[in-house]
Amino acid sequence: MIVLSPSSNRFYLTVLLLFVLAMPGCANVRGFLNESLPFPMHAADEIERNDFVVAKGDDVIGRLAMIRVEEGDTLPDIARHFSLGLNTISAANPGVDIWVPEAGERLLLPMRFILPEAPRKGIVINQATMRLFHFKENANLLEVSTYPVGVGTEERPTPMGKMYISRKKHLPTWYVPASIAADHRKKGDPLPPSVPPGPDNPLGEHALYLSRITYLIHGTNKPASVGLRATNGCIRLYPEDVARLFENTPVKTPVKIVNQPYLAGQRDGIVYLEAHSPFEESGTANWKKVYAKLKKIEKASGSALDWKKVKDVVIEARGFPVPVSAIRPGSDMAIVEPIKLWHPSRLHGKPDVPEFQTDAWYVLAATLSDNVDARRLAAIINHQGPPIPARVLSKGGRHRVLAGPFENRRAAKNAAKRLKIYLELDGVVFET
Fold it and tell me: Exposed, middle or buried, 202 (CB in 10 Å: 0-12/13-18/19+)?
């Protein structure tokens, strides 16, 4: 059985840690956002995240938004609050530190999407965009709900093609596959034959089993991995998203999985192009189809597309739809330009860090000379699955990253073991 592996946590967090440590030297490409947008500020809840009506002849749903970072934010927390994957928000904001973005920095929220080239029926999952689309007919209207997903790694990819939902299970038990059990034994982290429902279960609280045996659509206890290639082939959703999908998806619903890094579509007479960095094994064939589609649209409309912009969109691959045709007079510019949002009072799902306690157990994860590096490491530890609370205590130019508090020495030692296995940190257990 191929399902989500807890060990994938080490892969994605280690890669991200190495990536973000190199981020300060990156270019900060912010040209798309217009600081002087003539639109008012809106509450974060005013913008739709998941549910849309698809107008006849349209291929594009949603709209872009913009928000300012506040102290203590991370991109995984902002992404989850707005039902975006980490891949999407980081690609749309190149140069922004994933774990320690600068307070006051403007973030583009890429909440506009081009629908995949597939029949608009049941569930369609685009691996390249790491996005799930659930189509439903309702009183002659086509409705679609969309959610970010995590997909399989290059070594254990998510399968392509047509399937269907064979059964559903609330509070599933995870039966550990032999291959994953073997991987963990090699690391000195033996797993039990099965994991019951609870915080340690990597399937989360909801599982939809696919007709392709051993593959599932399910929740996760590692929400920061949504929007990454980090599973053993299954489709992973945020807990709140998979709960809605579970409730609204009957057994036998068809599922089609595609891999389309390039997408073209129209909305309100405007032609859009969306480009993502393709997986190593895909891209060329898909681009040829999209290029032909753009040429066909151009010929049918009699108006030239901006082919320089097409080239720029493909090269930059920022993962959201960009207009590549002339915007007609009278078009609703409020739909084309990003809407400005006030920062929410609290980001949904953001990990809680308890107050420092003087009668508890802790793990000293690291002592660093750079405060930003220390905050970054604490944020990564906070986004373990299940979470390990962590904070930075600074004194005399040294910044200690402490994980905890824990009720007893055993709990602290278990946390130290996880930090060693997943992040290769040699933590020191102590009591305050």
Answer: buried
82 and 44 in a common domain: yes
Crossing angle for the helix pair 371-382 and 409-423, to the nearest 10 degrees: 110
Q: How many domains does the chain have?
A: 3
In a domain, 303, yes or no: yes
Distance CA 9, CA 183 (A): 13
- Residue 285 belongs to some domain of the structure: yes
Same domain, 82 and 134: yes
Give yes or no for a contact between 176 and 191, defined as CB atoms under 8 angstroms apart: yes
Torsion sign (Cα): 276, 49, 324, 125: positive
* Catalytic option among 81, 134, 206, 234: 234
Residue 329 sits in the same domain as residue 210: no
Instruction: Summarize pLDDT for 237-281 with one digit per residue, the tens.
Output: 999 999 999 999 999 999 999 999 999 999 988 999 999 999 876
Structural domain range at position 100: 36-178+187-258
According to DSSP, the residues that pair with 274 across neighbouring strands are 263
Of 231, 258, 285, the residue that ends a domain is 258
16-27 burial by CB neighbour count: b if 16+ within 10 A, else e? bbeebeebeeee
Kindly report whether the peptide bond that precedes residue 405 is cis, defined as omega within 30 degrees of 0.
yes
Tell me how far apart the alpha carbons of residues 44 and 297 are, in angstroms, rounded to a whole number.
35
270 & 153 share domain: no
Is residue 249 within 8 A of residue 134, CB to CB? The reply is: yes
The verdict on residue 28 lying in a domain is: no
In a domain, 14, yes or no: no
On whether both 234 and 278 belong to a single domain, the answer is no
pLDDT digits (tens, 9 = 90+) for 146-176: 999 999 999 889 999 999 999 999 999 999 8
Is 215 in the same domain as 93?
yes
- In the block, tokens 């944020």 appear at 379
Residues in the chain: 432
Per residue in 175-228, pLDDT (tens digit) is 988 888 888 888 888 889 999 999 999 999 999 999 999 999 999 999 999 999
* Tokens (6 digits) for 322: 């960009």
Q: Do 169 and 43 lie in a common domain?
A: yes
Say whether 234 is catalytic: yes
CA–CA separation, 118 vs 123, rounded Å? 10
Same domain, 245 and 295: no
**Which residue among 218, 276, 383, 399 is the active-site one?**
218
pTM reported for the whole predicted model: 0.89
State phi, psi for 133 to the nearest 5 degrees.
-125, 125
CB atoms within 10 A of CB 120: 15
Given a contact cutoff of 8 angstroms between Cβ atoms, the answer to whether 358 and 404 are in contact is no
